[in-house]
Amino acid sequence: MALPSIDPALPSDPCPARVWYTSYGSNTHLDRLAAYIKGGRPPGAAREYPGCRNRAMPTRSVPVELAGAMYFATESRVWGGGRAFYDPRGGGRVLARAHLVTAEQFSDIAVQEMYRDPGVLLDLGQALSSGRAVLGEGRYETLVCAGQVDGLPVVTFTAPWQMGDVPWVAPSPAYVRFLCSGLLSAGAWDTESVAAYVSACPGAAGHWSVRDIIELLGGEPVPPTS
């Protein structure tokens, strides 16, 4: 599948009906995302999710690449190990999957990531007009708009800090499996490319090798290099 091009221009509509919720972590996987939308507990997770008010799955999901860096930090109460975070100021590219959802669904997904109950419509105005809005000090309480695809905003959430401000923490096998499987199902990258990308991210680097990730995904082991 070809990668849609992200138009870096910020949207003019401060209250869009639909947005591209862009996941760079475990929500790249539709089964994982379904727990946030329909409610429930995904395999390997330790938490039950209430779900969105609107339980319809995304009308489209497309692979995209964000400018910046992904890294793993803090300690997930759901998966154990580090969580994925996005630093738009980091150099490089971030493999991601953009899901076309309603603005209300994006709000409900975001607040569940903030360990709050869905039901409040987040004000996206500042994020869409300036590219960033800090709603709180929590790890997923900063909204980022990376531009537009097909005239609709590309939005995600991350932490307010930068990549170098916190200790990096290796992600758990279950988390790596969901993240990588989600990226692979997007259809734009092969197994070795995804494994190489994730294994090089801060937090995973030095703990997860390309060979480890390919084996985790059920692929053929990669012979060690001398």
The gist of it:
The protein has 226 residues and is an alpha+beta fold. 25% of the residues lie in helices and 23% in strands. It is built from 6 helices and 8 strands; from the N terminus they run βαββββααβββααα.
Across the major sheet, the strand order is 2-5-1-8-7-6
Shape: globular
Structural class: alpha+beta
How much of the sequence is in beta strands? Answer: 15-25%
Secondary-structure element order, as H and E?
A: EHEEEEHHEEEHHH
Contiguous uncertain segments of 5+ residues:
222-226
- Count of helices? 6
Distance between the termini: 35 Å
Task: Give the number of DSSP strands.
Answer: 8
CA radius of gyration is 17 Å
Task: Set out the fold topology.
Elements: E1 18-23, H1 30-38, E2 61-67, E3 69-73, E4 83-87, E5 93-102, H2 103-113, H3 125-130, E6 132-134, E7 142-149, E8 152-158, H4 173-185, H5 191-200, H6 210-216
Parallel strand pairs: 1-8
Antiparallel strand pairs: 1-5, 2-5, 3-4, 6-7, 7-8
Helix pairs in contact: 4-5, 5-6
Q: What does this entry look like structurally?
A:
This protein has 6 helices and 8 strands, in the order E-H-E-E-E-E-H-H-E-E-E-H-H-H. Strand 7 (142-149) and strand 8 form a beta hairpin. Helix 4 (173-185) crosses helix 5. The longest helix is centred in the last third of the chain and has 13 residues, at 173-185. The strands form 2 sheets. It has a 6-stranded mixed β-sheet with strand order 2-5-1-8-7-6. The radius of gyration is 17 Å and the shape is globular. It has 226 residues and is α+β, with helices and mostly antiparallel strands.
